[in-house]
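Input chain follows. Return structure tokens only.
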Amino acid sequence: MTTIPTPSMMIDGQRITSATQLDVIDPATGGLAGRAPDCSAVQVESVMAAMAQARPAWEATRGEDRTKIMHSAAAAIEDHEEELTELGMVELGAPVAVCRMLTQALTASLRYFADLRLEQVVISDTDTARVTATREPIGPVVAITPWNVPLYMMGIKLSPAVAAGNCIVVKPSPYTPLATLRAGEILGEIFPPGVVNVISGTDALGPALVRHPTPRKITFTGSIPTGRAIAAEAASLLKRVTLELGGNDPAVVLDDIDIAAAAPKIFQAAFTNSGQVCLAIKRVYVPDHLHDDLLAALVDLARNTPIGRGDEPGVVLGPVQNARQLQHVTDLVEDARASGATIACGGQRMDRPGYFYPPTIVGNGQQHMRIVAEEQFGPALPLVRYTDIDEAIRWANAGKFGLGASVWSSDSARASNVADQIEAGQTWVNTHQSSLGMPQPLCSTKQSGLGVEKGPWGLESFTELRVRYAMK
């Protein structure tokens, strides 16, 4: 494929290049897909100055005017849907249908938050005083997005931030900056200068943005170690943070499950985007007597799933996005093999260019194995036998993660009772990753993060509460 022209950064309403550039690798070939600007320290200062200058006017913009601008922005993204989808496919490697969904999520987020309102609350209104509580913009925002679903994460961070009256700078992952930068070019033509800024750079750019005194909020999606570092740095100036730090989502299968009905749903929830989803099923706890039957059903699905470049007809799964993540998945599978697990299918890199690894089903997993205890974030799924449901719940709750979980049973009420005992921000019964879209909040427990994204709760997170007590 021809190398894609280098997109520009969007700073203060202007398309800006840089003296140096980053190589962006096509994961389906391992070759160069394009290049992205490497933002300089001087340009970081320009971004911060632009947000500070634009802040008063944007905060003062009436709700109806903000709504109109955001709907215009959504229409502009929609007009460029095919272009943005193509960019996403090249840098992410996922099937076109997945990348189109991510682009559409950016459009949907702009429209949803454009119409969401933060109403004033009257606490008390008597003959002597009126007391009200309002939500006011928090101030300039830094958004740092991950490589696995770039435009989706851009949407659920940028849209509520600007809807609440804040200016924002978005920094995508250096692995997948192209679609985000192009979206920034489009949005920069709609929003007033300085309100929406998009820059790119190496991993060193994130800390420079976080430690700068101008931003009042940091919203980040990524690893736990990086999230901890951001929280520590933000604490020095008491900046607000929203951190979504991944998960190791368990699926607990009960002894009355209909394997034929559940297996395809479990497989899809584990392997969508080649398992590179924070809320993907990462481990399955299954009754001992059902282990082999569920294993066989999942293996059959894995062996019959088309794998290839995202634009190849009929492809369901693409490559792992980058070489580092491919090595991580490989290491976990090899550790499981050495520890006595059964690699029922897959289990080694595919013999073709790019970072392809087939959907791998691991049987006879053990709680202590790395592939069970760690987040693999790739196309490998372990099954762990259990003999007692309390044991399964205990194992599901073990460890530092608490993002999502699901319970599978022919008895929904019974499954719901088990789901209520699992420590996770969101739990599902007989499904996983299902969502109402933007209205449904994304939340977590334990070390899977802090704060909430999406829904009215996500909008509120970009505001601060102000109380006015007025004597009459």
